[in-house]
Sequence to fold (645 residues):
Amino acid sequence: MKILTKVCLLISCLLVVYYSSHAKGIKYGKFSKDEILLSECSYETDAVAVILSKTCVVDVSYRSIIYHHHVRIKILKEEGLDRANVELPYWRKDGLEKINSVKGQTINFDPNTGKEVTDLDGKSVFDVDLNESYGAVRFGMPNVKVGSIIEYKYTLISNFYSYLDTWYFQDDIPTLYSSIKVNIPESFRYNMVSFGQRLNAKYPSVSSNEWILTNLSSIKEEPYVNNHMDFVEQIRFQLTGYYKNADGMAGGVEFVTVKSTWDKLASEYLKAFEFFGRKGYAKKVVEQILDGDESDWEKVEKIYDYVRTHVKWDGEYRLYPKKSAPKILEEKVASNSEMNYLLVLLLREAGLKAEPALTRTNNLGLLQTDYPLMSQFNQALAYVEIFGKKIFLNATSPYRPYQLLAEKDLNHIALVIEKDKARWEKVVAYQKSRRQIILNYDFTNMNEPSCKFKLMETGYYSVESRKFINKYGLEEFLKTMIDESEVELNKDSIESLNLDVVNKPLEITCNLPMTEMDFESDMIYFEPFPNVFTDNPFIKEDRQYRIDFNYHRYQSILINIKLPEEFSIEECPKSKVIKLSNGFGKYLISNQKQSNSLQVRTLFEIKKTFFSKDYYRELRELFTHMLSSLKGQVVIKKNTTLSEK
Fold:
């Protein structure tokens, strides 16, 4: 058995060399012994399947763009069998793309019976509509089991010249070999942009028309990553121009530039809809909102609150408003662009410099400023300048004050559109998000031990709490923080301050009787900390991608414990400080212990919106120590001499 294992590992290593040197000769239906014997990916041993190769040859011509795809996969474990179900999406709207020439086969190898080939039946290939824009070709590969090799090839024919399909070298399983070759005639000009450390290191210039990477790890889901695809090895192409026959008697050829500019895109965008011309209507609405003696900051807050509370977001992301301002306020339901452009209209009427702005929610990936493409945007915001301050606004949530964008909107930059001009501006997160918790444990009356709980929140912490409370109630919210095995929630004692006033700090207080405390014992054990941190998001040894926090974090906990004379603190969480380099964050815990009392303070602080993966080990250490100390016990000891007296 050990010999067999060593042989399999050797084959895995040899296969890497094989693909590096012979992959250009990969042909449909032709397999090497290394592929047949492969049973494990050498650099990712837990992989359930592995892409042996995926290749694409792109032929660009005036008639069409043809993508020739060829994929070969080895099934390694039972969990990898779902790779046999294949879906190939394409843009079906206006007939711009179609997929044809689908061919596939499953190959099984048996030492006794030899190779068994099962072809994909054409009747098992289905064309389906996914939505109004996309369709897909679906099929299931036949006779697939552990050890099978499945391969399929197909042709995608496209008439979409503006940019070529992005080629992703990686997938959600490891890839041994990935290549793309692009054949572009001299009459076309495309700009190429590559992403990924390995791709840029191997191909620092754009002189090549073929790009090959080998031994690629799988795309892993990791916590605190807005979009994993931002970090995948990939290559993109955009059309900048082409040659065509010139008009007129002289003939010849001329070069047509198709690359747009951000200013041109902005102009075309504003011409696509009429919204900001309703000044007379806006004036009447503003007169209802403002008294006339407000400062500019007060104007922003009042107008923002008016839109936030009078209109409900329908949950749709639409860049182009369909409803007029009167219709929005009449129906009281609107899309993101309709709500935020109503905000722009009203702010302008109030005498403020306000403009529409476009961005992309960070879950869809980073924005690219090199190519003026409207398709990368999905979010419309309001932008306002006051006394040199530049602020983006999003009124789609009833729980956010005007200073806070949605966390998804924190994607570093946004495109501000001013008449026929456009410019990029930084999106800066609100930096005063804080959560402070105070727990006062009073055991001086052993018959009625109790705890007083107080929570104070601002910024993104209060937004999430208000949303939860609105949906589930105050009682359920408090249950997420307290340990009901040690304390009891006194429902009648629950009080809140500024629950519906989003521009002010949220405060919640309540009493927590400690019915389970047993003061008859000589040693009493209990965990004093609330359940604000439960799971460590950074448990893996290594990290593939950067860490996105999006906004600064600040959480503090203060624990006060009072004891009767005959009791003392035997043990408590130890003081310690864990700091990130460059002052970017820290966790500290400190205690002050006296004969009959204990005070414990904790502070968790992150002062950076994102970290490179080089900081991962520091963050992992910080979170590990923090969670360990927050699970720490306090041990109370009875002084038997005093108790007997």
Remarks:
- The two ends are 72 Å apart (CA to CA).
